[in-house]
Amino acid sequence: MIELFVIKETEWLELVAESVSLEGHRYQAPRSIEATIVTKQGSQTYYSVSEGDTVLFKWKGKELFRGIVFARTPDEHTLAFSAYDMLQYLVKNQDVYVFSNQRADQMIKRIANDFQIPVTTIANTGHTIKSLVFKNDTSLYDIMLKALKQTKSQTGRNYQLYSEKGKLGLREWPDPAEIWVLETGVNITGYQYSTSINDTATRVVMRRQKDNKTYKATAKDSTGMSKYGVLQYVETVSDDINQAQLQQRAKVRQAEKKGVKKELKNIQAIGIPDLQSGLPVYISIPEAGVKKTYWVDSDRHEFKGTKHTMTIDVVEKNTIPEGAS
Q1: Cβ(52)–Cβ(3) below 8 Å
Q2: Residue whose C-alpha is closest to residue 275's, from 314, 305, 306
Q3: Are the CB atoms for 37 and 81 separated by under 8 Å?
Q4: Which of 154, 179, 162 is nearest to 117 (CA)?
Q5: What is the pLDDT of residue 324?
Q6: Residue 250 CA, distance from chain mean position
Q7: Which residues lie below 8 Å from residue 6, measured CB to CB, with a gap of 6+?
Q8: Could you tell me if 266 and 235 are in contact, meaning their C-beta atoms sit under 8 angstroms apart?
Q9: Which tens digit of pLDDT belongs to each residue from 228-251?
């Protein structure tokens, strides 16, 4: 079932694969594989890989990954290696940039061109950012994520960086009409579930300093406040935005932080090749009162022989995690 190739110019050379692990994380570039291949058996030798080689992984005839080999661990008869998709080059490279009156997609195209990163479709993000300055060396991924985060804060629209067939792309975050279903007793074999209001906010305050003055915007969840009391979240904004934009940002952040936070993670299940971080999935765990759609936060797929299993963590809302650029 596993098809693993090393691409040499126009030639695909098939590798003898023992196992492949494929994983990814929402808002953490890139997707990667760890594979173990057989390089020698008796007097017979097989194709191997070197750092910088492009490898392609298919499962049941469908391409699931294409990326570059970055590390190897050779043994007498086998070789283990790690490979990463094109988003690895966004993480590994750093630079300083000054952008003025540009959309996030225009910034991404400029950076990709500067670092010779091939691109596929780059969606128009619509929102023009007045100024975005990186005086210190910053990873290309953090620069792009900062631009996408500001776009999300002002428009509510979410965009995703992705790698497809060895090229960098940008698209509106996938929200398919038909989604996969995971259910205990059917394809879920284990999980961890908990609830908390430790990270809940019933009132959000946004502040911005300009010309020795403090501008403030407030948004609140009256229903939550009556039930849980005042749980205030305060954020200082450094972006050059006006009062209306500051108020809109407070409103968006309040929507993100209201209500009881429920954590569902370490879901072990029968593998679904197309299910990866950033995609929605409907989960039914009646014994925990769970019957709703979540977003996959991280995924790890294990392939060996004809067997495919996966472990995923999920989140209720597809918001940018705290601490992300």
Answers
A1: no
A2: 314
A3: yes
A4: 162
A5: 57
A6: 24
A7: 12, 13, 15, 47, 48, 49, 53, 54, 55, 56
A8: no
A9: 999 999 999 988 889 999 999 999
Whether the pLDDT of residue 10 is over 90: the answer is no
Q: Which residues contact 263 (CB under 8 A, 6 or more apart)?
A: 192, 193, 194, 195, 196
Structure tokens at 148: 């996408």
Tokens of 54: 């492009």
Q: Yes or no: say if 73 and 53 are a contact pair by the CB < 8 Å rule.
A: no
Q: In what order do the strands lie in the sheet with 213-220?
A: 213-220, 203-210, 232-236
Residue 82 is given by DSSP the state E
* Distance (Å) of CA 243 to CA 42, 213, 217, 239: 73, 12, 8, 12
Answer whether 58's CB lies under 8 Å from 99's CB.
no
Cis peptide bond N-terminal to 30, omega within 30: yes
Tokens of 255: 């929507």
What mean pLDDT do residues 77-99 have? 97
Widest CA span in the chain: 78
| Segment 267-283, tens digit of pLDDT | 999 999 999 999 999 99
Distance CA 71, CA 265 (A): 29
- pLDDT band at residue 325 using 50, 70 and 90 as cut-offs: low
């679904």: which residue's tokens?
A: 272
pLDDT at 170 over 90: yes
Instruction: Give the pair of three-digit tokens for residue 106.
Output: 């225009």
d(CA 206, CA 198): 20
**Of the candidates 41, 83, 20, the residue with the CA atom closest to the CA atom of residue 305:** 20
- Alpha-carbon gap, residue 34 to 71, rounded angstroms: 10
Count of CB atoms within 10 A of residue 240's CB? Answer: 13
